[in-house]
Amino acid sequence: MNKKFHRVSTVLVAIAIIAGSAIGLNINSVKADTVLTSPLISVVGYQIKTNVTAQERVSFRTVCKAPDKGSVITVDGKNYTITDLGTIYVKDPHRSGSNSKNVLNKSYTLLDSVPCEEYGIENQPFKYIGKSMYKGTYLTFGYVATEIGTIEKKEGYTTYVRTLTNMDSFVMNSLLVRAFAEAVDEEGGHVIIYGELASQTSVANIANQTYKKSMAQNKEGHEYLFDSILHILPSNHPFYVDEPVEYGWGAVIE
Q: Distance between CA atoms of 114 and 127, rounded to whole angstroms?
């Protein structure tokens, strides 16, 4: 049976991030859909993986939450049935560590609702590209959640993640993130419904917070953040860490 949903509040103690590789496409226009948003669809946390393999290298994931697939939600007085859940990742070109200097704005977290395969873009981990290009290149990608990425189903809501690996070259880039859902309207038309809020962060930012608050799962993970991310940043970067912080002493209660 389909269920109708009201907003619920969730607090997730987690930390991490996202981005995507650039792709250049010869597309002159994209479909301009009406933007639908819902507070029921949201980013609830980020995590950086600290027990990585040599193949994964720097890896992070975004944790999102939305009503289960098959649920009916109401947006602007109209009912929609959710068919899939996803996460949007945007890699901003700038690398200063200050969100105020972002080149892109949150409008870049909106997708062209035409799946990539219809443009001849096949065998990619993402299903959608962004509505907007930046200097002839797409920096926005929409990834649909998989069963492997589902971490919890509770009270009609699904908590899911999308992990990106080999992020070494994007550690300093600002990232924009937004959760979304694929849905069908009452006439059977395909739509995308976005979370109301888009998040701004970076791998360096999340690594810094995780490290200084001793939030890694163990001492080895704590040292990984210092050795593989924070200590190799430029020394003038705001998230650079010069001296190691002893594990277990970061979360000071005032």
A: 9
Mean residue pLDDT across the chain: 85
CA dist 28 and 125 (Å) reads 23
Q: What is the DSSP letter of 135?
A: T
Helices (H), 130-214: 203-212
Pairwise CA distance, residues 89 & 94, whole Å? 15
Provide CB contacts within 8 A for 7, sequence distance 6+.
39, 40
The tens digit of pLDDT for each residue in 70-127 reads 999 999 999 999 999 999 999 999 999 988 889 999 999 999 999 999 999 999 999 9
CA angle 211, 214, 216 (to 5 degrees): 80
**pTM for the full model?**
0.85
For CA atoms 79, 80, 82, 87, the dihedral sign is negative
What DSSP string describes 19-70?
Answer: ----EE---S----PPPEEETTSEEEEEEE-SS--TTT-S-EEEEEEEEPTT
DSSP state of 227: I
| Cβ neighbours around 83 below 10 Å, total | 15
Q: E strands within 68-185?
A: 72-75, 78-91, 128-129, 137-138, 140-144, 150-154, 157-164, 175-185
How does strand 72-75 pair with strand 78-91? antiparallel
Contact 45, 114 (CB under 8 A): no
Neighbour-count burial of 32, counting CB atoms closer than 10 A to its CB (0-12 exposed, 13-18 middle, 19+ buried): exposed
Torsions phi, psi of 184, nearest 5? -120, 145
